[in-house]
TrEMBL record:
<dbReference type="InterPro" id="IPR011527">
    <property type="entry name" value="ABC1_TM_dom"/>
</dbReference>
<keyword id="KW-1133">Transmembrane helix</keyword>
<feature type="transmembrane region" description="Helical">
    <location>
        <begin position="29"/>
        <end position="49"/>
    </location>
</feature>
<keyword id="KW-0812">Transmembrane</keyword>
<dbReference type="InterPro" id="IPR017871">
    <property type="entry name" value="ABC_transporter-like_CS"/>
</dbReference>
<dbReference type="Pfam" id="PF00005">
    <property type="entry name" value="ABC_tran"/>
</dbReference>
<keyword id="KW-0472">Membrane</keyword>
<feature type="domain" description="ABC transporter">
    <location>
        <begin position="260"/>
        <end position="564"/>
    </location>
</feature>
<dbReference type="InterPro" id="IPR003439">
    <property type="entry name" value="ABC_transporter-like_ATP-bd"/>
</dbReference>
<dbReference type="Pfam" id="PF00664">
    <property type="entry name" value="ABC_membrane"/>
</dbReference>
<dbReference type="InterPro" id="IPR027417">
    <property type="entry name" value="P-loop_NTPase"/>
</dbReference>
<feature type="transmembrane region" description="Helical">
    <location>
        <begin position="260"/>
        <end position="279"/>
    </location>
</feature>
<feature type="transmembrane region" description="Helical">
    <location>
        <begin position="171"/>
        <end position="190"/>
    </location>
</feature>
<keyword id="KW-0547">Nucleotide-binding</keyword>
<protein>
    <submittedName>
        <fullName>ABC transporter ATP-binding protein</fullName>
    </submittedName>
</protein>
<dbReference type="GO" id="GO:0005524">
    <property type="term" value="F:ATP binding"/>
</dbReference>
<dbReference type="InterPro" id="IPR036640">
    <property type="entry name" value="ABC1_TM_sf"/>
</dbReference>
Amino acid sequence: MRFSPAGDPGTPDARSATRYLVWLAGRRPLFFGSAIALGVIWMVAQALMPAAVGRAVDAGLAHRDPDALLRWGLVLLGLGVVQAAAGILRHRCAVHNWLGAAYRTVQVTVDATNRLGAALPRRVAAGEVVSIGTADIEHIGSAVDITARGTGAVVAIATVAVILLTASVPLGLVVVLGVPLLMVLVALLIRPLHRQQAAYRESTGELTARAADIVSGLRVLRGVGGEPMLGARYREQSQALRADGLRVARVESLIQAAQILLPGVFVVLVTWLGARFALRGEISAGQLVSFYGYTAFLVSPLRNLTEAADKLTRGHVAARRVVRLLRLAPEFTEPARPVPVPEGPGELVDVRSGLVLRPGRLTALAATAPEDAAEIADRLGRYVDGDVTLHGVPLRDVALATVRERILVADNDAQLFSGALRTELDPRDRGDHHAIEAALVAASATDIVEALPGGLDSPVAERGREFSGGQRQRLRLARALVADPETLVLVEPTSAVDAHTEARIADRLAAARHGRTTLVCTTSPLVLGRAEHVVFVEDGKVVAEGRHDELLAAEPRYRATVSREEDQ
């Protein structure tokens, strides 16, 4: 089941966030309902214990009745056993609900990012997704968890109010009227906390995104001397986040103080009134003991209520962030009735640019503007919508899974993930050692593996941090060759390697992809000279085709584009 926050795009995030929390709670109705029931039993058992103590004092001690004292002592023991058993089971259910809500949020977030696909970086900052997976899941889990204790606290307060009204109407009215007044005072603090937490959450996401950008581009920043400037901006934004955090902490400190002060004042008031009624003979000694026990007990449910208000507020803020991500729709959707594509290699045509990829041939695409080549690659892989056909069938009418299976676009934004290098190069776990070795040879990456202590079984750090930019590029190329798709689109696969390595890759690529359709987007003469067919693109349109030497002789614009590479 996939959560759908609202069918109407104009639905406020606040309503959607509430529905999201309710949806999470309903995912495990047995555990959620059991936690609430056990929370009520746990709290009510505690609420009845002062009454049992008071009856033991009046019936057993005041009247010197050993049997009554024993009877009410056993009642008190039974309530203690019920309280202990219900508390243990409630805690287990609450932890299950916390984990279920938190990690279900991780699942729906990952599902949403997968649905967005290549559009994710353009729609959501990396720091936003990271913050959801770290801070927000804790708040959402706590919001679902606190419902059990919060509900138990409400029922326990109502139970105590009924008992007090039965024994003394004035004391009962103090509880009935005093508890809502306390909650109103807490609510006055919750509203500014809600605003401050939302602002703090925004600042946290922005700062996390900036940190990720700095780390990912640290080598480039150092190369161009931009590290001090970016570092200064990060420090400035970090101090702004610190100020937001202090504002949140200021309100939170007031709430924490209110959790101690207000229930304490309430206890003092009820105890003072009960003592006066006892001196006037309106209540018995046992009832006075009970009233003091009730007031001492009420500190716990009142603090639970204020804690529930705090955690529900935090969870609501976090849920709004999650819902905002879930409401993002992919740039294009699956066709209602996917059209089958004939088996085997076929012509892949980009109508907008006029590019025609003939099956089984190594084609190179040289563009005057690198972004034009990247846009064509994205359209060919259907990462953006476009008029592209395979075997004459429009890709927008083909199931996306089929497109991904038959057309692979490998660019320099692809990441290396943590894990064994063998698994990284063979993510489909085909277990073909010879295919991996052949791909490493074609990508001129065997030296990388040989330098590792464990070879292909060596662990790879996140994003392949232990490798240089050129090494990561060669490993990404090897991974694409291991996948061996029907059509492979490579975007600048040799831009970060030296000329000798590039020449080796250019010599071996055609053999590695023999019989398969391959498009290499590049302006490198070493690669262009070894391609079977070269396509020249200017202003997003194909303006010339032929072999590299033919285009050099006949097309001045092509010669000018390529000569920039040759002059470097």
